[in-house]
Design brief:
The protein has 129 residues and is mainly α. It is built from 4 helices and no strands.
């Protein structure tokens, strides 16, 4: 009887150790993968900013403006998705303010998103205001 209890205790301890190891490995891999993804996003943003600056400095202003309008579409859509998740009284005022600024800009400088789906999502975001 004592050997079976000891065997059960050892097996249980071994299984708990494996489970803890899996959890720790998951947390560490998520932490390092996220950092890697964040760094890649920053690198992509740097490359895009350089392209925009070259377009502006080279007097290709229409190209630069079009790229910035596409970026703004993406930001508006992202703000709309985030704000739609939260009831109006609990929405982050900074996000609401940014969406209001984008809306005001689009009133003075109209632009249609690249696709009907994107345009619908932009309008849906503005409808949250």
């Amino acid at each position: 009887m004592k050997k079976s209890r000891l065997s059960l205790l050892l097996c249980g301890t071994f299984l708990v150790g494996i489970m803890i190891g899996i959890v720790v490995a998951g947390v560490l891999s998520f932490h390092f993968a996220r950092r890697s993804v964040d760094s890649r996003v920053v690198a992509a943003n740097v490359a895009q900013e350089i392209t925009d600056l070259r377009n502006i400095r080279g007097r290709h202003l229409d190209d630069a403006a079009e790229v910035l309008e596409i970026h703004l579409d993406g930001y508006i859509i992202a703000l709309g998705i985030e704000l739609a998740k939260v009831p109006p009284p609990r929405r982050d005022p900074w996000l609401v303010k940014a969406l209001e600024q984008a809306h005001d800009y689009r009133q003075t400088s109209p632009h249609r998103a690249g696709s009907p789906d994107d345009e619908a999502m932009v309008q849906k975001a503005f409808d949250l205001l």
